[in-house]
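As a warm-up, study this chain.
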Amino acid sequence: MFPIVTNLKLIRTPWATYAITGTNVFIHLVVTWNSNFAIPSEIARTLGFVPSLFGNLSESHTLVTCMFLHGYLLHLSGNMLFLLVFGRLMESELGASSFLAFYLATGVTASLTHAVVASESTKPLIGASGAISGVLGAFLIANPRARITLLLDPTLIYFFRQLTVRLPAWIFLCMWFFPQISMGLKSHGPNVAYWAHVGGFVAGATMGIAVSRYFPRQEAVKRPHWHN
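Now compare it with the structure written out below.
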């Protein structure tokens, strides 16, 4: 299931979210143009975050640069979809400068969480998903009752006989978060930094709780429920 829209209205134009998205897309196209849109390993090693090198000041910049690199187009598009759906609303509530600081802070926290869990790893960590996980955590605190419209995958479309479903944000985000822990606990699994997702989400939720009193009340808008 892929989120495509919420029932909340933007309070202000989310320029920072658009800038982050555009930067990610631009960087990916530039660095992968001659490699079938898959990131070259030398760039991933140079600008990705390598846990075993954590503590080396000359590598500290990779805590930020790793957030703007993606392995392949599907990796990029999935992350940017989540960022646009949830990041725009969080920026609308926090403001551009606060959102940008929040985004970078949760991204760094996600990478550090991964470094703690996989301290000996020499594999470079790349991707915006840690920072975006922080956005999801804050969204859960700020708008738990928001309605999220989800595009179903083909199997579920066949089963439910409809293209989309709408779920409360707290249900969808819990359905997303707890499998991250489950997959992270498996000793052998896909080459995904699940604990970075967990660390980012928890950091985002914690920051969301800290500033929850400042979140404006969101106005819901009606969205069509599309059927096939």
